Amino acid sequence: MTRFTVNNQPVEYQLDPQTPLLWALRDASNLTGTKYGCGVGECGACTVDVDGEAVRSCQVAIGALEGTFVTTIEGLSRDRSHPVQAAFLASNLGQCGYCIPGLVMATAALLRTNRDPSDAAIAEALTNLCRCGIQPRLTEAVRRAARLARGDETLEPAPKPGTDHDEAARAVPALSPR
């Protein structure tokens, strides 16, 4: 049995210790925000936070995580109030959305250690792949997340998950041209 903490809850997995964290999270804990992409650690869709570091969950066995703290996209903020989630939403970054949880987690880990990352630091930390082509907007969204985290910028809160579509549309301010 492998014991560690997931999203501030102690867990004990009765799975083979060689089971990749990705599958323990998705199949045993029903935390499906962590996505399966390539299975070889290249795409970053499965990125989670392990003790403050961005980790590709398809590449780490649960047996190696005994006593650690794991945070998934669900544990970052369920109401989308985390600065990274808020910035990504405000920047209209998502296309299909499949890579977004991994990008959010990688960005959160970056901003924990670097509150004002350069473009080069962002490029180095965010090696996740996005097939929809959000990379041109990604750097600005990360910079916006950094400003939010530092308190240099504020945003209206995003509609809560489950909000009626019409109600959510009324709550979003009209975009003004730059």
From TrEMBL:
InterPro entries named among the record's database cross-references: 2Fe-2S-bd, 2Fe-2S-bd_dom_sf, 2Fe-2S_ferredoxin-like_sf, 2Fe-2S_ferredoxin-type, 2Fe2S_fd_BS, Beta-grasp_dom_sf, Diverse_Oxidoreductases
Database matches in PROSITE patterns: 2FE2S_FER_1 (PS00197), 2FE2S_FER_2 (PS51085)
Residue numbers spanned by region Disordered: 149-178
Pfam families referenced in this protein's UniProt entry, alphabetically: Fer2, Fer2_2
GO molecular function annotation: 2 iron, 2 sulfur cluster binding; metal ion binding; oxidoreductase activity
Keywords: 2Fe-2S, Iron, Iron-sulfur, Metal-binding, Oxidoreductase
Keyword Cell inner membrane: no
Name of this protein: (2Fe-2S)-binding protein
Entries under Gene3D superfamilies matching the protein: 3.10.20.30, [2Fe-2S]-binding domain
